[in-house]
Amino acid sequence: MAFLxxxxxxxxxxxxxxxxxTLFKHVFLNAPTALSVTDENGIIQYVNKAFIELTGYTSDxxxxxxxxxxxxxxxxxxxxxxxxxxxxxxxxxxxxxxxxHKDAHHVLHCVTITSVTLDKTYYLSTHTDVTRExxxxxxxxxxxxxxxxxxxxxRSLFEDRLSHAIANASRIGSRVGILYCDLNxxxxxxxxxxxxxxxxxLAEVAKRLNSFFRVNDTVARFGGDExxxxxxxxxEDEQLDTMAKSLAKKIAEPMQELNLSISTSIGxxxxxQDGLTRDQLxxxxxxxxxxxxxxxxxxVG
Length: 301
Prior knowledge:
By secondary structure, this protein is an alpha+beta fold. Helix content is about 45%, strand content about 25%. It folds into 2 domains: about 130 residues, PAS domain (Beta-Lactamase, 2-Layer Sandwich), CATH 3.30.450.20; about 160 residues, Alpha-Beta Plaits. Helix 1 packs across helix 2 and helix 8 crosses helix 9.
């Protein structure tokens, strides 16, 4: 087994195994890495046991068939055009390819392909299942920039997008608005009804915010019961006040599942009228929100 790393010296690989068929069967077929050999037209010539286990097909179902029988619809539409261009240009390929298991589930293969020319061109491929690894990496990346409870952008992603929105607005001469929302008496709901109900309220408010704003606006949860929204390409600054009033009504609609409702205090700020930097806009909107909240508690007090 010590010579397995030399598989990619393909000339030696084929010469060696063509003259020692028994060792070929033992090493190639039992190698722990999934291996396949195709001709230049992609027709499968050899597969090993690990490849059979990875794909779910028997050797009879694979050998003589085009390798494309495994391809998944999860690949980008133009992926295989790029794949063949790379393979023909470099006589090699290394990258991730979505393939479909026999039972129809999709598996992300990390594939390394190397060509060799004997009587004709052949391709030796190694396949490693990296589905869980990549999904975990993507999940961790998602959680780094999103609130895990509501799925909204978190503060880190919000601040990055606000900086970008300000830079874009400054370049093209447009306006950017933010709305800083804080739920009223949310602590009371938690205390009286429990945290499960509080979590439901937060998730429901997040849904209402997402449905209220456009896809290219950013809705974020800063934590607790604070939500902040970026509205790009404002027509006029007064639009924010109208938007805040409509949003407050939307959030205050009764939650039928819980037979309760909740109100919100909203502060606004716009670029460039109220501030020129991210921190200035957030500070102004936060201050206006607290003015609204103090007014609310003054009324209910």
